[in-house]
Design brief:
Helix content of chain A: 10-25%
CATH topology of chain A: Rossmann fold
Number of strands of chain A: 10
Oligomer: homodimer
Largest interface: A-B, 33 and 33 residues
Shape of chain A: globular
Low-confidence stretches of chain A: none
Strand content of chain A: 35-45%
Structural class of chain A: alpha/beta
Largest sheet of chain A: 5 strands, parallel
Strand order of the largest sheet of chain A: 5-4-8-9-10
Mean pLDDT of chain A: 93
Order of helices and strands of chain A: EEEHEHEEEHEHEE
Chain lengths: ~180, ~180
């Protein structure tokens, strides 16, 4: 299987290539299970978190270890927006995602407990890979609606040209 | 809102109560975003991981920070079984979950890359909260089918009487 090398700090990983359409190959970023890579990315990304940030916000699933490590380094809490309604959710805030890469529209769900925690907070949004920017855009809308202010939008990797401005560590090519 | 106190090591949290049916109240464990609690639970749980373990295995989503911290402490990798098919998955292994608590059957998905990583490995299964044991049971079936041996089943919290034997740190009451 062909692979693509990514280097973060002094750590290199060869990631597999995913072929969503014939002739289009994309490096497949999925570092769930790779503690070393999550820590290296977190160390690099926290340098871009504004000091005024009260809380980090992400969407499940693959970004969770990254944001968890960033929160640990910064000593700040984080909020994980869900992509499925959970049985215990009470009066959740919901937000539709328009996403080209997923083919179908997704919905973000945030339990009211977390909505209340975001009120009047300064939030930095973090996603592992930003492509169309649809998830980042929906996350920003949801966080605004919860009464928080977005002070930064960060991604570990950028693939293509997202429709929102995002600070990313690395560019991923289309091969 | 009524809360229930949980204590892990020298850390106490008051968690909200969830009322799935009138008159039945359950402590709601959801420590996504709480770095301190994930670390405290991981420190307590790694003592129950057999030394022969090659890999930790969990199912998304809420258990991820816990297993990530355990993997970091142990210097071992982990695998996250998904509950939704992802677009990049190639020839995934799938396994149905029979779960009373969720009301509907769920399906576990594991991309072939990770199936291959589990072959001939000794796996410790970890879940944040075990209730009916349905997810744990399905996880074990899936890991077996991938060619791995399950050497332990661990949970941070046990609620009720699961149909599989699980080592848990704490019992959660039905109030």
């Amino acid at each position: 299987m062909d692979t693509y090398p990514i280097t973060i700090g002094n750590l290199t990983r060869r990631v597999p290539l995913h072929e969503p359409f014939p002739g289009v190959r994309l490096p497949l970023i999925d570092f769930l299970g790779d503690v070393g890579l999550a820590k290296a990315l977190a160390e690099a990304l926290v340098k871009h978190v504004p000091a005024e940030t009260d809380v980090l916000v992400t969407a499940e699933t693959s970004s969770i270890p990254l944001v968890h490590e960033m929160a640990a380094l910064l000593g700040k809490p984080y909020v994980v927006v869900r992509k499925r309604r959970r049985p215990y959710m009470h009066d959740p805030l919901i937000q539709e995602v328009e996403s080209l890469t997923l083919g179908a529209n997704e919905v973000l769900w945030l339990d009211r407990r977390y909505v209340e925690r975001l009120l009047n907070q300064k939030a930095t949004l973090v996603i592992d890979v930003v492509a169309s920017g649809g998830t980042m855009h929906a996350l920003e809308r949801l966080v605004h609606r919860a009464g928080a202010e977005v002070v930064a939008r960060l991604a570990a990797f950028r693939q293509g040209t997202p429709k929102v401005e995002v600070v990313a560590l690395e560019e991923l090519p289309v091969l």
